[in-house]
């Protein structure tokens, strides 16, 4: 049904420095408290007729009519809602006292939530699928019996004696035991599991719950076929042995008969049926081959047999959903600086962008009628729901969870350039609040290795990323999204950059982008700083061994700056982790060619650093972040450089709460001291 939808003015027009609305009193700059009070909304699901949208906000399920100006209603406490085929009820997960999470249903117009499962130990909050016959499918963690445990081929524990005596490890000992219990975050051994996720179904009319699979493989991501016969599900057969391998199976909804729909690959997940049930799509993910990631499609016959999978959309797919015609997919594709929503025609490969090409999108959902909705995060608003009605060319804004945020924001723009290697690059620039042309501003380079981390509302004040807070204080903030040796290119450019020599590409990605801003007259080249967290911290610290043009550098939990140590600490040979050699792009093992690892280790070039540095790390972080941070500090201290190390007790990889508040304050003071 087509709806008459009024035209809305852009969100936060008055708050945006580029907006045309008159202001009697200019709004204030954004603060850390603003970020902490933001409401998060996600998990969008359109009703079959497209007239209502369910979503999650503040731990509850809400429903919103799909016309601008509608007011959302809270319908139940819970998560992961799924619409009934009739569109009048929702199934969702919610806690049920001592029995853990259970499945509930609710009539969205007039009913109270009703608990429908009563399984001991509860269910797994992965996905609940609702069939055309009113049967729910879901997964439950089932204990393995003694026979299954005895037959499990997982590697046994190595020989060891009582406490106080040595753990005996020899040439044939299993992976993961060399560091087990010594360093936080190192690869642990594969231990025999005591339970496995199996597929269950619940018949709503009869009130019956039964276990459908009993094979001990392990499953996630159930999806009913439109005719209610088959349940598509992602397997976890490799996980019990520590190998990240999974396939796609079809399980008959009555008999439990199982067919393999797609062979195991490094990661297959999220199966979705085409509207006519003749095809099945699923996501494929590879950490080592970007071009092998995307959405694959198989044909399905009446007996549940499938053809060979075809990778229909590639690469860098964040989310996807079938279009109503069954001949195309809506996809959310990471292009390096944004995640636009696009429609892909499967036969021709034609692509059309239906959402903004410059924004971050999430929670993609499509109705049976062909309407599309998604959430969108952009420079002028933390999150807004967008809706594209079937048959229309332009989407509209539906709902802003944070209308109370009325602050001055720095104008945000995408910057495109070529580095000196000739590679096309893209990054994001936040201009200072009240930006004036012909005036140069101090610059903060946020060096994380993906441009899609630019949106300042997503980090919620986490240190190391830079944000609109800095723009409100008069800084320009630049996110060049550099490629790094262990990231194998990126969504914008799939060129391989692994190996020791690729640090030159990393530095070029950053420096050439900064040069563009200087040439445009935006940046004062005498007042520049660089900062980063994790991968970004590694880039910030490594770049200081290459240049002295920055007045200050901040590295929060930097990663992987001593390739020799990382490679020698490699304690696994299984497929569950990418071996250090391949991860870093080295051509030989560290024992065969240590010089390549030495050349790829910026920690051995600390003598080139003259820039004042602020380092920070949590004591509960992974060893691969704590050790590089301490190594940089000790090396610079030995050389008598201006360096400060902040260690936060009890903090893991990521700063939140009081630790984030304290560190953000210290970072700001450090930058002000060196750039003003």
Class inferred from helices and paired strands = alpha+beta
**Mean pLDDT, rounded to whole units?**
85
The Cα radius of gyration reads 26 Å
According to DSSP, the number of beta strands is 36
Sheet-strand content, in percent, reads 25-35%
Helical content stands at 10-25%
Cα end-to-end separation: 59 Å
Put simply, the count of helices is: 10
Apparent shape: globular
Question: Could you describe the largest sheet, including whether it forms a barrel?
Answer: 8 strands, mixed
The low-confidence runs, each spanning 5 or more residues with pLDDT under 50, are 1-23, 488-494
Lateral arrangement of strands in the main beta sheet: 29-30-32-31-33-34-35-36
Description:
The structure is a single chain. The protein has 676 residues and is of the alpha+beta class. Helix content is 14%, strand content 32%. Strands 29-30-32-31-33-34-35-36 form an eight-stranded mixed sheet, with helices on both faces. A four-stranded antiparallel sheet has the order 1-2-3-4, with no helix packed on it. Strand 31, helix 3 and strand 32 (476-479) form a beta-alpha-beta unit. The longest helix has 19 residues, at 657-675. The radius of gyration is 26 Å and the shape is globular.
Set out the fold topology.
Blueprint: H1 32-36, E1 41-46, E2 52-57, E3 60-65, E4 73-77, E5 79-83, E6 89-95, E7 101-107, E8 114-115, E9 129-130, E10 135-143, H2 146-151, E11 195-203, E12 208-211, E13 219-224, E14 230-235, E15 246-252, E16 258-265, E17 268-273, E18 279-284, E19 294-299, E20 310-313, E21 317-322, E22 328-333, E23 341-345, E24 351-353, E25 360-366, E26 372-378, E27 381-388, E28 396-399, E29 412-418, E30 424-430, E31 441-446, H3 468-472, E32 476-479, H4 503-519, E33 523-533, H5 535-543, E34 552-556, H6 563-568, H7 580-584, H8 594-599, E35 613-618, H9 623-638, E36 643-648, H10 657-675
